[in-house]
Amino acid sequence: MKATDFDLSKDLIFNPVTGITQFKNSRLVLFDSSAIGLLRETVIREMGKDKAREIFLQFGYKNGYADFLQMKLAFEFDNEMDLLASGPVIHTYEGIVQATPKEIRFARDSGEFYFTGVWTNSYEAEQHLSYHDVADEPVCWSIMGYASGWCTAFFGAPLIAIEPKCIGKGDDCCEWLIQPPDKFGVDVEPYRQAYRDFFEKEKCNG
User: Fold this and answer.
1) 57 with 48: CB under 8 angstroms?
2) Mean per-residue pLDDT for 102-127?
3) Which CATH class is domain 3-205?
4) Average pLDDT over residues 9-25
5) What is the 3-state secondary structure (H, E, C) of the chain?
6) What is the pLDDT of residue 92?
7) Domain ranges (residues) in the chain
8) What's the CA gap between 79 and 73, in Å, rounded?
9) Beta-carbon neighbour count of residue 186 at 10 Å?
């Protein structure tokens, strides 16, 4: 969907007392791609890459978690695999031109889970390529956070999505992997920390 597809007139109301035009029922902020890129770079510069990764992943957890619950209430699926595949493969990556799963293994009773695949034309990777040339580390943090939140809500057990390979080139070099946190090495600690921080906040808010 493009920004020009939005009909904001339906959501705006003019307050004659204050002279301010505002949204009727909710806040809405629209960013163009350059503003999103600038925001990302600002967070990284001010807080460092590890903390920035935690922040973006937490944002993804929140959205993926809530989105799973919403779709579960709104749709019926033939089986758990159908429901799962509709999320991480299709809906989770709605901002990506193509996502292809390579392997999916899961067992709800034992908590065993392994989900890997490739994507093309990641929005975040394309942004990095446009502004900074080819990246030397994974750049699609918020997408990975979304997948983590979706799968964690689906299984009711902690799952983390990472990019084993993504250099911000926007082609088949991007890969993703989702599995339990303890299956990864120490190099994914920022992802684990994002998971812990998010669910600590969930406990406090609950």
Assistant:
1) no
2) 79
3) alpha beta
4) 69
5) CCHHHCCHHHCEEEECCCCEEEECCCCCCCCCHHHHHHHHHHHHHHHHHHHHHHHHHHHHHHHHHHHHHHHHHHCCCCCHHHHHHHHHHHHCCCCCCEEEEEEEEEECCCCEEEEEEEEECCHHHHHHHHHHCCCCCCCCHHHHHHHHHHHHHHHCCCCEEEEEECCCCCCCCEEEEEECHHHCCHHHHHHHHHHHHHHHHHHHHC
6) 44
7) 3-205
8) 15
9) 6
- Residue 10: what residue type? K
Where b means 16+ CB within 10 Å and e means fewer, 130-159 reads eeeeebeebbbbbbbbbbbbbbbbbbeebb
Q: Would you state the pLDDT for residue 94?
A: 47
Which two three-digit tokens encode residue 94? 């709605």
Question: 20-25: which pairs have CB atoms within 8 A and are 24 or more residues apart?
Answer: none
Inform me whether the pLDDT recorded for 157 exceeds 80: yes
Give first-to-last CA distance, the chain, whole Å.
Answer: 34
Instruction: Identify the CA nearest to 154 among candidates 99, 113, 100.
Output: 113
What number of residues does the chain have?
Answer: 206
pTM above 0.85, yes or no: no
pLDDT at 191 over 70: yes
Tokens linked to 48: 């460092």
Q: Is 57 within 8 Å of 144 (Cβ atoms)?
A: yes
